[in-house]
């Protein structure tokens, strides 16, 4: 009787801790544990993946894991017993790829990032706009977007909003090395101002092989203290004035040019106070390495979609503009 009872306990111990407790067919499955998850909510999440959640819970209680659940993304391998599974959940958090680009505002960035890590959009937005953090690192709320460089980054899924912000600051400092800062200084621009100008270049031309030429035209204007007269800044100003950033504005109207806004570069000289979008890294590099030429004006090239016709003076520009307007009018006729 004693031998049978002993065998029973040994069997149960082995089943509870070491037998394969997975039920899924794939080689692995991911789970995401929130900061506020308990053993109850974790058991519920694991139920489709395990043969016995009760055995998992028993093993978790015996190993002291049920009172010390750690948040994160975890990779559960097929065939694991509860002992190995709990050891994995204790120490082997997985990273996630956080990818973002071309976000128009911090609000858009917060929404995008919140879909990829545990932190929600509100906590991210509060961290992004934190005035103490911004001022201590040389930013303002208006140019704060320039801290965030579009790319693909590795983060732990349970990264907090503050940790995300801090890591992005580290990437920012790595990107703005001595070489890039020297190029910005030669243009009499700060890194934030380079980003702002790059955001305009991005909106004017997403074509990487033309961005340096567009950047060169704007750099020439800045050197001559001319107004940038960039249509994308007017579009941003209209959206900001109306509070509707979802509206689609395809053409700038003459009445829009009269809008009183620090973002309306038809009214104010120099750069707007903040970026009008998140530029690609190619646009930032284009500003830092602008094409050297004498162009001051450009207009869309109807014969080469996505590209522009450039001009050195107003006479040439008006000629190019006429070509573009004639093309627009022909399109209206044949509609």
Would you kindly provide a written description of the structure presented here, covering whatever features stand out?
The protein is mostly helical and 335 residues long. It has three domains: 2-91, Dna Ligase, domain 1, CATH 3.30.1490; 95-175, no CATH class; 178-293, no CATH class. 49% of the residues lie in helices and 10% in strands. It has 15 helices and six strands. A two-stranded antiparallel ribbon has the order 1-2. The protein has a two-stranded antiparallel sheet with strand order 3-4. Strands 5-6 form a two-stranded antiparallel sheet. α5 (106-114) crosses α6. It is elongated and about 105 Å long. The chain starts with a helix and ends with a helix. The model has no long low-confidence stretch (mean pLDDT 92).
Number of helices: 15
The computed structural class is mainly alpha
Strands, count: 6
How much of the sequence lies in strands comes to 5-15%
Q: Nearest-angstrom radius of gyration?
A: 28 Å
Number of domains: 3
Q: What is the mean pLDDT?
A: 92
What is the overall silhouette? elongated
Largest sheet entry: 2 strands, antiparallel
Give the end-to-end Cα distance, rounded to a whole number of Å: 94 Å
The percentage helix is 40-55%
Strand order of the largest sheet: 1-2
List SSEs in N-to-C order.
Answer: HEHHEHEHHHEHHHHHHHEEH
Which stretches of 5+ consecutive residues score pLDDT under 50? none
């Amino acid at each position: 009787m004693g031998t049978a009872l002993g065998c029973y306990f040994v069997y149960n111990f082995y089943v509870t801790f070491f037998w394969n407790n997975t039920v899924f067919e794939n080689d692995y499955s991911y789970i995401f544990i929130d900061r506020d998850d308990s053993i109850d909510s974790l058991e519920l999440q694991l139920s489709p993946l395990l043969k016995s959640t009760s055995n998992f819970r028993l093993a978790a209680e015996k190993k002291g894991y049920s009172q010390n659940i750690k948040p994160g993304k975890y990779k559960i391998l097929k065939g694991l017993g509860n002992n190995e599974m709990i050891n994995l959940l204790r120490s082997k958090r997985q990273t996630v790829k956080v990818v973002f680009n071309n976000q128009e505002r911090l609000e858009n960035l917060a929404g995008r990032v919140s879909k990829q890590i545990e932190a929600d959009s509100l906590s991210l937005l509060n961290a992004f706009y934190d005035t103490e953090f911004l001022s201590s690192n040389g930013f303002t709320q208006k140019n704060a977007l320039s801290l965030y460089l579009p790319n693909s980054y590795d983060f732990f899924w349970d990264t907090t909003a503050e940790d995300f912000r801090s890591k992005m600051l580290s990437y920012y400092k790595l990107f703005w090395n001595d070489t890039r800062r020297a190029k910005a200084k030669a243009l009499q621009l700060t890194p934030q101002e380079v980003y702002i100008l790059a955001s305009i270049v991005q909106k004017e031309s997403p074509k990487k092989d033309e961005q340096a030429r567009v950047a060169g035209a704007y750099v020439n204007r800045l050197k001559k203290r001319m107004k940038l007269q960039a249509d994308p800044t007017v579009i941003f100003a209209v959206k900001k004035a109306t509070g509707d950033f979802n509206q689609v504005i395809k053409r700038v109207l003459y009445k829009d040019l009269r809008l009183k806004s620090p973002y309306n570069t038809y009214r104010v000289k120099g750069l707007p106070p903040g970026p009008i979008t998140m530029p690609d890294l190619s646009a930032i590099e284009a500003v830092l390495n602008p094409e050297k030429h004498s162009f001051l004006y450009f207009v869309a090239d109807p014969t080469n979609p996505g590209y522009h016709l450039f001009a050195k003076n107003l006479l040439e520009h008006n000629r190019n503009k006429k070509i573009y307007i004639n093309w627009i009018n022909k399109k209206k006729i044949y509609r």
